[in-house]
Amino acid sequence: MTRHYLDTTALLERFTGDATARGEVIGRLEGSEHATSTHVLREWIRLVEGTCAEVLNSMAEGEDDLGEIFARLSQGWGRETGQRLRVLSMLARGKREVSAIELRLRAQQIIRSGSREMFGHYLDEIRDGCECGLARLTVETERGRMVLVDKCKRTDQICRQDQFIAERIEEWRAASKGLVEHGTRDSDKNMGKLGLAIAEDPPKGKGKNCYGRTGDISISCECGQDETLLTTDRSFEAIVRERGISVTRFKGTSSP
Amino acid sequence: MTAKMTKPRVLETRMTRQVAPTPERIDAVNRLLKQATKRTHWAARQGDAWKLHGALGELQSRAVSRRITSSPMVTSLDKAVDSLARLTIGEEQLSNGDLRIQSARLLRRAAVDQSRLAPRVGSIALLLSDSLLNSPGVEASNEKREALRLGLNLLMDSFVGEEREKKLYRALMNAGWEVTATFDHGEFADLLAQIER
Question: What is the pTM for the complete model shown?
Answer without folding.
Answer: 0.84
